[in-house]
């Protein structure tokens, strides 16, 4: 196990824990466990990226949280509810999941119906449902698609609808399982902006399975899985500084980090820039002082 992994069980200080796993295990075939003794606590309001190589069990892990798959051992507590037969429906109300393929997520015959369907399940007053419908359709830029049948939408539009449907229910925990892989760069950045806004509200805990460097950098914390175990629990910066860990996770450094490393090798210590302008501002003095 990588030394960087620091298991966390209990609340640090007064922090409320949204997601807690203690020694959780699971195998599709009991003889071959996919996940072994996973222990993890995520405080309310935290944004966690879950990373790791293909097939290491990231999707399996998040499906255990709302009993889409049955854990074979250990304890899961979601928003104070211990996961048991009787608490599954309470727990499912606390968790919204957006998957990679939006086709599997449509229920309504139109976009509007699809968003309203989830809200009806929460038994909200009609005015509140209408208000959320319009707020989240506007946030995701899908107001003009409300009367469309899901079959008439592009992959990226379908994913925006799926995200709007989940966010409109305002679950305390939102899980994205490679949910932005269908989105173009602009839409992906918009989604990151929406999540950043949600983070400032402090009400949402975000778990995001991703291989995307920008999404990883946006998180508060990165949990890395490999070989059925958590091998690291670090900040995004710690991950991107650790070339061994990056290789274990099959990840690359973000472009500005690679550029900074190359410049450093050539004697220019410009640090990591967030964008092109900052990069030029940082490199310019080196050229100017020659
Ligand atoms: N329904 C299933 N039945 C049997 N084995 C499965 C099933 N779903 C997944 N697996 C296996 O479990 C392992 C973990 O799969 P999982 O989808 O959780 O990985 P992942 O880390 O999310 O992968 P990726 O990054 O490719 O999406 C893989 O070896 C996969 O083949």
UniProtKB/TrEMBL annotation:
It comes from the Bacteria. Residues 19-252 form the ABC transporter domain. One of its GO terms (molecular function) is ATPase-coupled transmembrane transporter activity. SMART domains: AAA (SM00382). The keyword Membrane applies. The keyword Transport applies. InterPro entries: AAA+_ATPase (IPR003593), ABC_transporter-like_ATP-bd (IPR003439), ABC_transporter-like_CS (IPR017871), ABC_transpr_CbiO/EcfA_su (IPR015856), ECF_ABC_transporter_ATP-bd (IPR050095), P-loop_NTPase (IPR027417). It is a peripheral membrane protein. It is found in: Cell membrane. It holds the Pfam family ABC_tran. Keywords: ATP-binding, Cell membrane, Membrane, Nucleotide-binding, Translocase, Transport. One of its GO terms (cellular component) is ATP-binding cassette (ABC) transporter complex. Belongs to the ABC transporter superfamily. This is Energy-coupling factor transporter ATP-binding protein EcfA1.
């Amino acid at each position: 196990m990588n030394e960087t992994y620091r298991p966390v069980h209990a609340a640090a200080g007064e922090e409320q824990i949204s997601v807690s796993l203690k020694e959780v295990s699971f195998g599709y075939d009991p003889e071959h466990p996919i996940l072994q003794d996973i222990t993890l606590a995520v405080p309310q309001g935290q944004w966690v990226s879950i990373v790791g190589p293909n097939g290491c069990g990231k999707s399996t892990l998040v499906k255990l949280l709302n009993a889409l798959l049955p854990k074979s051992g250990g304890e899961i507590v979601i928003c104070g509810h211990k996961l048991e037969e009787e608490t599954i429906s309470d727990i499912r109300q606390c968790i919204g999941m957006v998957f990679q393929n939006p086709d599997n997520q449509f229920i309504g015959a139109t976009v509007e119906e699809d968003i309203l369907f989830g809200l009806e399940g929460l038994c909200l007053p009609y005015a509140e449902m209408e208000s959320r419908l319009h707020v989240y359709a506007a946030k995701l830029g899908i107001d003009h698609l409300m009367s469309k049948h899901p079959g008439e939408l592009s992959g990226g539009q379908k994913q925006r609808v799926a995200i709007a449907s989940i966010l409109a229910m305002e679950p305390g925990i939102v899980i994205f399982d490679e949910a932005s892989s269908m989105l173009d760069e602009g839409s992906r950045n918009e989604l990151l902006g929406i999540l950043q806004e949600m983070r400032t509200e402090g009400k949402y805990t975000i778990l995001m399975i991703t291989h995307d460097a920008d999404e990883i950098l946006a998180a508060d914390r990165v949990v890395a899985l490999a070989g059925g175990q958590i091998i690291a629990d670090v900040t995004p910066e710690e991950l991107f500084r650790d070339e061994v860990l990056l290789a274990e996770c099959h990840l690359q450094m973000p472009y500005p980090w690679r550029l900074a490393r190359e410049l450093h090798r050539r004697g220019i210590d410009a640090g990591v820039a967030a964008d092109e302008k900052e990069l030029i501002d940082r490199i310019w003095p080196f050229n100017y002082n020659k």
